[in-house]
Amino acid sequence: MTFSSCLTEEDSALVLDSSVVINLLATGRASSIMQALSMPIVVTDNVVREIEQGAVRERPEVDLLREMIGDQTLRVAEVDGPALQIFFDLVSGSASESLGDGEAATLAFAYSNGCSAAIDEKKATKLSVDRFISLRLVTTIDILAHDAVQSTLGRTALAEAAFRALRLARMQVREHQFDWVHDLIGAENVAASTSLRRLANRRKGLVRGHSGIRVLLNPTE
Q1: Best CA proximity match to 90, nearest among 50, 37, 46
Q2: Residue 216 falls inside a structural domain
Q3: Enclosing domain of residue 54
Q4: pLDDT tens-place string over residues 161-212
Q5: Contacts of 105 (CB under 8 A, 6+ apart)
Q6: 193 lies in some domain
Q7: How far is the C-alpha of 151 from the C-alpha of 85, rounded, in Å?
Q8: Are residues 117 and 137 in contact, defined by beta-carbon separation less than 8 angstroms?
């Protein structure tokens, strides 16, 4: 199945969630990737604080993030005005119906300012789809698969960048993105990635049918 990035000319500005920032920093090519997109890239101050808190656990992302903020590759924005009420709504309520500060701030700012949001977490994606119909969502893989990023990095460097994000940051890959990632990094690296290995096994392996009998997804294999 062919995979195309959801990131298009319709995306005039992109707001990154913490996990996406960490994935991109782990690639070792974050600055080149973001500059290749040729659009304003924003992080909320909530996301910056989340990543700074990670530095307490000896994670190196905070220094790289500060560097990109300093050279204006990234712009830091505060959640205020109408976005602030949306933020409070998203962090309130039961665990199943609320988000962490970084995710909530990313969605609230993007929705209120007509930006697109880059977010990988499934719960945040579901809540966004349910509450903000007009908000465009992309993932880290969509950023890596963008034509300008592929052209800028070239296939070899892009494959290395993607594998670093998988290995160092445990980047999430959706099922419809798997074939593109597999072709990019190769079967050996897929097997070396715990999350991708599980996804590969689920795609080819056994599933439980309605009767409780295990059946092959691809019986001809």
Answers
A1: 46
A2: no
A3: 14-142
A4: 999 999 999 999 999 999 999 999 999 999 998 878 888 887 776 333 434 4
A5: 44, 45, 46, 47, 79, 87
A6: no
A7: 40
A8: yes
Answer whether residue 29 is part of any domain.
yes
Q: With cut-offs at 50, 70 and 90, classify the pLDDT of residue 104.
A: very high
Q: Average pLDDT in the 144-156 region? A: 96
Question: For residue 77, what are the β-bridge partners?
Answer: 44
Output the average pLDDT for the chain.
Answer: 87
What's the CATH number where 55 sits? 3.40.50.1010
Query: Reduced to 3 DSSP states, what percent helix, strand and coil does the chain have, rounded to the nearest 5?
Result: 60, 10, 30
Strand order in the sheet with 116-118: 75-77, 41-44, 14-16, 116-118, 137-138
Q: Structural domain tally of the chain? A: 1
Q: How far apart are CA 123 and CA 126, in angstroms?
A: 5
Predicted confidence at residue 182, as pLDDT, reads 94
- Examine residue 108 and state whether it is found in any structural domain, yes or no: yes
Tokens of 193: 């990635």
pLDDT value of residue 211:
40
> Among 216, 220, 145, 218, which residue's Cα sits nearest to residue 185?
145
User: Tokens 């990543």 sit at which residue?
Assistant: 51
